[in-house]
Amino acid sequence: MKRTRKTIGTAAIALALVAGASAGSAKAYFTTFAAAKGGHQITVDTKSQITEQFSDWTKHIRLANTGTAECYVRVKVFAGSTYQVEYDGSAGWHDGGDGYWYYDEILPAGGNTGQLDVKITLPTVTVENPAMETPPPYTEDFNVVVIQECTAVLYTEDGAPYADWDAGLVTNEDSYGWEGDEADE
Q1: Using CA atoms, how far apart are residues 95 and 106, in angstroms rounded to an integer?
Q2: Residue 20 falls within a domain, yes or no?
Q3: Domain limits at 76?
Q4: Which of 29, 47, 68, 116 is an S-S bond match for 61, by CB 3.0 to 4.6 Å?
Q5: pLDDT tens-digit map of 7-23
Q6: What CATH number corresponds to the domain at position 96?
Q7: Is 184 within 8 Å of 171 (Cβ atoms)?
Q8: Quick check: is 8 in a domain?
């Protein structure tokens, strides 16, 4: 009798192990799909910061991407009609033909541009005393303003990056989008 109970107990345990092993597979099958609800707000931030140095009547300009997303950047210098400015198009900058100078590459978050040099030409100083060999140093106050802008990197349907300098950020209660794109309504 003891032996029969022991055999039945062993058989029951073996059957439970076999059933448990196959139940694990079935359980895994039913848990491969899960539904989720809710969300997490993501902020895509494009910001750039300018660094200017001035020496030898030249502004040395660099931009840094201080945002969290890659961006395109551009610069424009205003000097008024009294002063002339001349851009040095090296270090990855090019003239856009619209008064702005554009950095050639996408600027990654935390990245910096190459240096853009802008030479300022002073107006001609007339010498009131013809005995002076050199004109006196230029002492007039002047203001040369550098404007810098950045825009998010957008992509065409085939994945090519581009900049839309005319796009404006539109918002509604649930989403952000660029003008021209379909934002969630």
Answers
A1: 16
A2: no
A3: 48-123+137-178
A4: 116
A5: 777 777 777 766 666 65
A6: 2.60.40
A7: no
A8: no
